[in-house]
Amino acid sequence: MLPLELLGAPEGSRLVRACLDVEQLTVHLAITAPTAACPVCGSDARRVRSRYTRRLKDLPCLGRRVRLRVAVRRFVCPRSDCPRRIFAERLPGFAAPRARTTDRLCQTQTDIGSSLGGEAGSRLASRMGMATSPDTLLRRVKRLKDEPPGPPRVVGIDDWAWRKGQRYGTIVVDLERSDVIDVLPDRDADTVAAWLTAHPGVEVVSRDRSAAYAQAATEGAPQAGQVADRWHLLKNLREAVEQVLERHSAAINAAIKALEAPPGPGRDATAPQTDAAVPAAEPPLPGPPVEPVPASPRLQAKRAKRRELAERFDRVHELHKRGYPAARIARELGLSRRSVFRYLRRETCPAWHLRGSRRSRLDGYREWIDARIAEGFINIADLHRQLTGRGFNGSSYGSVYAFVTKRLGAAGKKRERLNAATPPVPRPPSARQLSFEWVRRPEKRKPPEQARLDAIRGSSVELAEALDLADGFANLIRKQSTGTLSEWLTRGEASPDPALRRFAEGIRSDEAAVQAAVTQKWSNGPVEGHVNRLKTIKRQMYGRAGSVLLRARVLNAA
User: Fold this and answer.
1) How many angstroms separate the CA atoms of 210 and 479, rounded?
2) Beta bridge partners of 61
3) Cα distance between residue 79 and residue 75, in whole Å
4) How does pLDDT run across 465-483, given as a tens digit for each residue?
């Protein structure tokens, strides 16, 4: 019974034989049940008319393909009024009628197609011993049926781009289960309203600030409460703050310039900077000698290698003086005898495997070049011309440059660039950049960002009041404030800044949904995550998937 259990064979089947070769396992089965139910009238038939063999593919076993040969019987229906006179016995739970694969192989290929698509899924299935075509995988995915776990109660809706800027669709997510319920072909209010009407159990609809979605939720689910997405509210607030900062750009640039200007001599770093002349600073007093710069890691490694070679060289000569033969010295020090003889033939330690300084045609002019460097003459172009005038024509300008640079390093000097371009003055941050710095949580701001925002607040009383008002709404959305939305709207509508006043008027027109966003836990965060997953699946198919295939993959992908 063990092979039949592994194969998941239908009840009443019998193992006839199994043939195993290098690449494939072929299993022959026979159905031995005494009766079979008619697929039309359900009557039990006993009369066998004929037999035939069904050829099925199954899941691979032990790295080999599995092929099934099932002997199936044809029965005669006992009822004379049944339209089906002759029928083949069914294999429920094992293989569908007229199928060429078992149900479990079909389900596995469907899962592969849902996760990887056609071409990539076909390549993986072939490597796993379940070879099939990309079209078959996609056809299986399209045949998947929607089986919602239950009527949704809290849904989130958002749009996604079929083609950015031209055509958009709508995704609907069950926020309680964080599962995609449906993918709609467009984002029209009528389409979304029709979907909500078909699901009367919806109690909460989370959405962005789109007027079309607000209208659809009002028409399709009037019994449901609407919740504005907090991320979109902060996005709209950031855009309003950007307009505020653009109106005060002159004062902001002056404040940032004064903040980033380095303090001059005799000037306090924290004092406000002015354009008044400052007397020149006195020359610094001579201090202690400057410590030498430590060698680079590469140079330190070379020196350590040289010391190791010198110690090994001395050890070889020491053992040789004590009468040790070359073979024993080689064993003691882990060297070859050829290396031992090479050490013994020399009186000084060789610097093998270390790149020494190469000889240069300028070595004959080293003293003259060192003298010129000591005089402070380090213009390499003039040195090259003077060397040429002295009859030297063996090196190019690049060779002279490299040689003089090494001699400068040996003399402990640094070549200064003449007529070097001054670095450009960095442009002040734009209003958009500053608005992004502002919308970030205070605990996540970097010190320079916080310093800029503090300087901006101190540059203008009107600007400070506008930013304080925006901070109040951000704290409300982040649930870090003890105030109420009604109080903020009263202050916002009376604000002297037109950008914040328009923002408050827009919030007033959608006050119920924004109030729900402040008081309830629902948001469109999970919806945005599923939109990203939808985009990934769409890009896997190079944007050529139709609505049926894309919807099936989004709803059923693991």
Assistant:
1) 23
2) 64
3) 12
4) 999 999 999 999 998 888 8
Residue 215 lies in a domain: yes
Q: How many CB atoms lie within 10 A of CB 283?
A: 6
Query: 347: exposed, middle or buried (C-beta count within 10 Å: 0-12, 13-18, 19+)?
Result: exposed
Q: Is residue 554 within a helix (H) or strand (E), and if so which, with residue range? A: helix 547-556
Domain residue limits at 124: 105-142
If asked whether residues 31 and 76 sit together in one domain, one would say yes
Q: Are residues 122 and 198 in the same domain?
A: no
Considering the domain architecture, whether residues 55 and 114 belong to the same structural domain is answered as no
Looking at the fold, whether 72 and 116 belong to one and the same domain comes out as: no
- pLDDT, tens only, 15-51: 889 898 888 999 999 998 899 999 999 999 999 999 9
Question: Residue for token digits 């939808």?
Answer: 534
Name the residue with tokens 């703050």.
241
Domain count, the chain: 4
Q: Are 201 and 176 in contact (CB under 8 A)?
A: no
> Token digits for 291?
């410590």
Output the furthest CA–CA distance in the chain (Å, rounded): 124
User: Distances from the Cα of 331 to the Cαs of 54, 313, 334, 543, in angstroms?
Assistant: 75, 15, 5, 69
Q: What is the pTM of this model?
A: 0.63
